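Batch queue: ligand-bound targets. Current item pairs a single chain with adenosine-5'-triphosphate. No template structures supplied; prediction is de novo from sequence plus SMILES. Inputs echoed for audit trail.
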Amino acid sequence: MSASDHRRAEAAGDPDRPREATRAPLLSARGLRLAFGGVKAADGIDLDVMPGEFLAIIGPNGAGKTTFINMTTGYLRPQAGSIDYDGQPILGLSPRAIVKRGIGRSFQLPQLFSEHTVLENAALAIAAHAGLWSPLTPLLRPRYREEAMALLDRFGLAPLAEARADALNEGARKLADIAMAAALQPRLLLMDEPTSGVAATEKMGIVETLVRVLRDTGVTAVFVEHDMEVVERFADRVAVWSQGRIAALGPPEQVLNDPAVLRDVIGIEPAHHA
Ligand SMILES: Nc1ncnc2c1ncn2[C@@H]1O[C@H](COP(=O)(O)OP(=O)(O)OP(=O)(O)O)[C@@H](O)[C@H]1O
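Prediction returned. Tokens below.
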């Protein structure tokens, strides 16, 4: 289901269902500031992410998109501001404590154990979720391997279970990395450029798979994306980052037709946009 179909289905849904405006955000960032020397990577970021939504972050290189993900997942501490998740402050928690609260992430460069198979990687991720962080024992336990196989199956990766992670093409590697993040059963998943480096022919199929799995399991997603076709098709809302600030925020049909966004972020003159 595309994001616009999803929005229509929601609008046509249960009339007793609370309206978007009255629902509490799952993630709420206020006044985030972080400078590296003279570079303002976050210069007053305010953002609410609603439960169940897919929010795309777009913007030029160096705008501060990854910095926002790093602050939300405990890898960077802002110099000012607050981040609440599920109504609780999370700033100051370690990355691992934040994962335990239910926020997962995938990285621009997939973080798989390259010399292990895809199945072994999945077993390790599932064991980590069960609280076992030791590197080898999970591989010996059939229970983790069975759960790992079920996870891979959901992501369409079962045929690659016995392939070594370093033998995967970029699309499968990205999908496998997101499957590992999903093994930790997050309620909110932050993905940094899930389609970067993926061949154009594979891209849509990969995004369709991951969106289907995440929607089926009720995961809220924030993803940094440079491909506007992916954004248009799969995002419920788009946030445009520019020099550490959010320059525009709204549904893709509105934001991606905004002349200033087209010119400054996507880099085309509005008149040339058919
Ligand atoms: N740990 C750090 N130390 C110093 N400078 C940093 C650090 N992290 C980010 N920066 C700087 O902060 C700015 C924002 O970086 P960030 O990686 O968040 O941008 P981005 O929007 O994700 O860019 P890209 O699309 O290239 O990934 C950049 O100028 C970057 O060089």
